[in-house]
Predict the structure of ABC-2 type transport system ATP-binding protein.
Amino acid sequence: MKSTEARRAFSQIKGGGGVVGQGIEVKDLVVERGKREVLRGITCTVPTGQVTGLLGPSGSGKTTLIRAIVGVQIVKSGSVTVFGEPAGSAELRRTVGYVTQAPSVYADLTVRENVRYFAALYGLGAPEAERAIDDVGLKEAAGQLVGNLSGGQRSRASLACALIGTPRLLVLDEPTVGLDPLLRADLWAKFHALAKAGTTLLVSSHVMDEAGRCDRLLLIREGRLIGDDTPAAIRERAGTDDLEEAFLRRIREQVTA
């Protein structure tokens, strides 16, 4: 299938029980930092129109894999394609939203000014900016300087900027760190609403109670993929109802293999 045909096919795919294709394909990906392999031959896929969780302890390679998917990571070997295009290609610039761990907004601008700036880059106006601000629960803080906000509010401001272009793929690197439980629940509801509307989401986390909210999980440890399935299937395979225990059992299997 030619790239234009692939894009057309993927644009017709919707989540929420419709046909599911592969939004991201990673094949034999190796990334080195110095003389150390950070990613060791990872192969995986991320289905369209779903929330896929990237789960693993700190230092396991989650952020490196995410950077490779959005096309800002130098790789030694292997390939990453997003909707049939090489990761980081010009064709993907308006279709991929990326929220980093550190808030990627301007501290000396207000929330509204930040979001309207990103809206202008997409050729959008004030109504779209206000909608994105409202979606992340920052309506009351829209006129405040980002530098005066709490860490959680700054993270939400970054998310609003990522949502402004209505991306087909939304990549979020630990987006709920530092947020209170109520706000975390609200954001996860938003993530699933986006997926139901057809957006593909990849969400990294090291928080086990968030893993169960995902449609599918990629388990990563020491740069290797050790699990790729639904939360229910991972628990069933491990013979436990506790997802954290299932993850630990999978690690033990890898150590003794």
Summary: Confidence is low (pLDDT under 50) at residues 1-19. The domain at 17-95+170-229 is CATH 3.40.50.300 (Rossmann fold). The CA atoms of residues 98 and 171 lie 5 Å apart. The chain has two domains: 17-95+170-229, 103-166.
